[in-house]
Write a structure and sequence with these properties.
The chain is of the alpha+beta class. It has eleven helices and 18 strands. The chain has a ten-stranded mixed sheet with strand order 3-2-1-8-10-9-5-6-4-7, with helices on both faces. Strands 11, 12, 13, 14, 17 and 18 form a six-stranded mixed sheet that branches. The protein has a two-stranded antiparallel ribbon with strand order 15-16.
């Protein structure tokens, strides 16, 4: 049996089997024949070639779709994401991690606001036998039959909680955290999730999903760039530019540092205000956790605005993996507690 955790996000899809982890953009594109497949320079990495055939349709996925597909698909609509994106992204990711014909037990998550409505639909999408063909940069085909025998869907931010509390054997390692009342703020691309784990019990009163994801800040940046350059930059093409602090459009470089600080500060203020309102009656929270890829980006803006003990983020770890590592550890706790697994490798380069 293979235990796999997978986080199918609007911005990135993340997957781990405990031995390795992969991250790629949640972008799909129609596959096309690439006339020149060889690397321009020998020795350059080509790990971002992610092509999959699923249910008779061939897809470019992630960076490959962004770079090569004439027709690309990206959405921030939850219903459309589940109906048209989630299965392809999840099966592509799972095929990268699992050997064929080995029973797979899979843990994934949904934003709290969509959990009750969509958890059964997501389970049905993923559970069962699926044929996936992976195609590498040289055109070599690898066929896998994925037997996903068990699927467990949990509220998304609990992945980060399980990552803090459980070790790689699926056993409780931080018993103090398990006894505390912890508020979790999971800032994703499309949404922010707020939840309270009180002695590991879910608090309905203290849990909510809002639209205050990092995409709100990216939209402001894209709008400003459109005003200055006349070009509409897709949100998923802003990741590297925001991190770098500049973007070049048609040969002209635009500085993003001041604008990014401004919009991230505004987003952090909105998130802190939402947390204050939601947790007004939960003044006895022992600690707060900021998590998610968006959380890492705005943590320095957000942490000073929160009223409570905010646990510091580990800068040496990729915050985008917090939930998915927790999903995997929870899967180990459910189905393979105590089984030894090698520590996960760093995410695949360019994925």
């Amino acid at each position: 049996m293979e235990v796999i955790g997978i986080d199918i996000g609007f911005g990135f899809t993340k997957v781990t089997n405990g031995r390795q982890a992969t991250i790629f953009k949640s972008v799909l594109g129609e596959a096309t024949d690439i006339q020149f497949q060889e690397q321009v320079l020998p020795g350059m990495a080509n790990d971002d070639h992610l092509q999959a055939e699923i249910e008779g349709k061939s897809w470019f996925v992630g960076e490959l779709a962004e770079r090569q597909s004439n027709v690309r698909f990206f959405t921030l609509d939850q219903a459309q994401f589940l109906a048209q994106f989630a299965k392809t992204l999840a099966l592509t990711a799972t095929a990268r991690m699992a050997a064929g014909f080995v029973p797979i037990s899979l843990v994934t998550g949904l934003p709290i606001g969509y959990y009750r409505q969509h958890k059964d639909d997501l389970t049905r999408l993923l559970q069962g036998e699926h044929k996936v063909v992976l195609v590498d940069a040289a055109g070599k085909r690898q066929e896998k039959v994925l037997n996903i025998s068990r699927v467990r869907v949990i509220p998304q931010p609990f992945g980060s909680m399980f990552n803090l509390i459980l070790n790689d054997l699926g056993e409780a390692a931080d018993k103090r955290m398990a006894r505390d009342k912890v508020g979790i703020i999971d800032v994703g691309f499309r949404t922010s999730d707020y939840t309270i784990a009180d002695k590991m019990r879910y608090s309905e009163r203290g849990s909510r999903t809002t639209d205050s994801g990092i995409a709100r800040a990216f939209t402001s940046i894209a709008n400003k760039l459109r005003e200055k350059s006349g070009v509409g930059v897709e949100l998923y093409r802003l990741y590297d530019a925001v991190e770098r602090g500049s973007i070049k459009i048609r040969g002209k470089e635009y500085d993003l540092k001041v604008l990014t600080d401004q919009v991230f500060g505004q987003l952090a203020t909105a998130i802190a205000s939402e947390a204050d309102r939601l947790w007004a009656d939960d003044w006895d929270i022992d600690a707060m956790v900021i998590t998610g890829g968006g959380g890492a980006v705005i943590a320095r803006h957000l942490a000073p605005l929160l009223n409570g003990n905010v646990l510091p983020m580990d800068p040496s770890k990729d915050a985008r993996l917090c939930n998915v590592l927790g999903y995997w550890k929870f899967g180990k706790h459910l189905w393979a507690r105590g089984a030894i697994t090698a520590p996960p490798a760093a995410p695949a380069a360019g994925a």
